[in-house]
Amino acid sequence: MILAPSTTDLFALGAERLLDLATDHAGPFFAYDLGVARERFARLRAALPERVRLAYAVKSNPGLPLLETFSAAGAWFDCASAGEVSAVLAAGGTGRRMVFAGPAKSERDLQAALFAGARVQVDGIEDVARLHTLNTGDEPLEVSVRVNPASGVSEVAAIIGGGGPSAFGVDEEEVAEFVAAARAYDRVRITGLQVFAASNELDAGRLLANHRTALRIGRELAGVLGHGLDLIDLGGGLGVRYAADEPSLDVRALGAGLGRVLTENPWFEGELLLEPGRWLSAPTGVYCARVVRTKVSRGQRFVMLEGGINHLLRPLLTGQSFPTVALRPGVGMLGDGGPADRTGASLVPTTLAGPLCTSLDRVGSGDLPEDLRPGDVVVFGQAGAYAVTQAMSHFLSHPEPEQVWVG
Ligand SMILES: Cc1ncc(COP(=O)(O)O)c(C=O)c1O
Asked: What UniProt keywords apply to this chain's record, in alphabetical order (predicted)?
């Protein structure tokens, strides 16, 4: 699908700026607009009730300028490795505004989280036992328990889980047994909950249904524990559109709904936490790669780019393409039919392939201008999340893409 960069929630930066950057960069590159990051954070923060903390999920993009931008805006951070904890501390974040999650935390991870003072989310009794040993402080360590709900919404169940068997958390039906076992470890105290079973969800109502489930599980957990909870972490999963015909997630409806969820649960006097990654970072970035050659093979048109799944793996993992436009140096945007279109070339179904010696190297498909030629630049939008760090960067020893931060 061809979309104009004026569709700003799909493409950061404009055609002219990107062509200037392409002139300066010999190879494929990511370009990020920090102004978009500031605007996204402020918009979501303004939509949420005061009692909802907003954490940025570092895994979606751990770029230092992005972390610094969110830290300066007052974000909490959701980390899942010792490396992410270090990155957040380097960016000015603090352990007091950090949660730490992961289904298989290493000793190094737990020590990094404890050293920083982050709120750890335990995924099972083993985490409790290890934290009991590692906690050398005077007070019990306050932790949250991740619970795997009996049902959830998930566009990509294989990535996040949500209902059914899961590597994450304690199964909802085993919570009472878990709490009983955890009582043996008096240097750890369970005071919070995390429930997260959504991915790239565009419907605020479906997210809120999950959040109501989290509060119900929280009430039951508090009953089993015999005391209240100070934090209920609702996870991320706020979706972005990858195609122009998809709706945008209504974050004001989400915020208003969370206000109602709090009102409906007067037993809960703590704070809620949302930890979106994609919604905050995807629209900040684009990935740009030049066309190397084109061909038609048995009726199918291929455009081969200088970057492939060594830089962008998500389309192969999820079957969902990033939105794309094509630019030509010295000309501008090609073939979108809109005001920026300089050629009016018609669009033809195209498979975008990379330079790697495997037929797995596909980075998308869609309708692209029929006259696309070597040197033209294909721009992938929404590439600020789950792009550079979710790729097979070492495969075939091509250089890593440069990352350019603007604003
Ligand atoms: C624990 C946790 N929190 C937050 C996120 C962020 O999810 P999203 O980027 O879909 O908002 C993830 C994603 O895997 C996660 O595992």
From this structure: Amino-acid biosynthesis, Decarboxylase, Lyase, Lysine biosynthesis, Pyridoxal phosphate
172 C-alpha to center of ligand 1: Å?
19
**180 Cα to the center of ligand 1, angstroms:** 29
d(CA 32, CA 51): 30
**3-class secondary-structure state, position 194:** strand
Instruction: Judge whether residue 352 has pLDDT over 90.
Output: yes
Answer yes or no: are the C-beta atoms of 22 and 374 closer than 8 Å. Answer: no
Distance CA 292, CA 27 (A): 11
Q: Do domains 15-31+282-406 and 34-280 have the same CATH topology?
A: no
Label residue 158 by pLDDT band (50, 70, 90): very low
Q: What is the domain class of 34-280 according to CATH?
A: alpha beta
- The span from the CA of 382 to the CA of 318, in Å, is 14
Q: Cα–Cα distance between 91 and 195 in angstroms, integer? A: 27
Statement: residue 157 has pLDDT above 50: no
Task: Write out the CATH class of domain 15-31+282-406.
Answer: mainly beta
- Taking the centre of ligand 1 as the mean of its atom positions, its distance from the CA of residue 293, in whole angstroms, is 37
| Ligand 1 center to 86 CA (angstroms) | 19
pLDDT tops 80 at residue 9: no
Using only the alpha carbons of the chain, give its radius of gyration.
23
In the chain, what is the straight-line distance between the N-terminal and C-terminal CA atoms, in Å? 28
Query: Does residue 308 carry a pLDDT above 80?
Result: yes
Q: State which ligand 1 atom lies nearest to the alpha carbon of 277.
A: 9
Which residue is listed with tokens 């703590």?
270
The rounded distance, in Å, linking the Cα atoms of 81 and 104 is 10
- Which ligand 1 atom is the nearest neighbour of the CA of 200? 10
- The alpha helices in 305-406, defined as continuous H runs, are 314-318
Nearest CA to ligand 1 atom 16: 160
Domain positions in the chain: 15-31+282-406, 34-280
Best residue among 153, 275, 318 to mutate for probing ligand 1, ranked by most atoms within 8 Å of CB: 275
Burial class of residue 293 (count of CB atoms within 10 Å of its CB; 0-12, 13-18, 19+): exposed
